[in-house]
Amino acid sequence: MKEYAIIVAGGKGTRMHSDLSKQFIPLSGIPVIIHTIEKFRSYSGDISIILGLPIDDFPIWENISEKFKLNADIKVVAGGKTRFQTVRNCLQEVTGPGLVAIHDGVRPLVKIDTIKASFNLASVHKSAVASVRLKESLRRTNQDGTEAVDRSQYRVIQTPQTFDIDLIKKAYECDEESWMTDDASVAEHNGHSISLFEGSYDNIKITTPSDMVIAESLINTAF
Question: Structure pTM?
Answer without folding.
Answer: 0.95
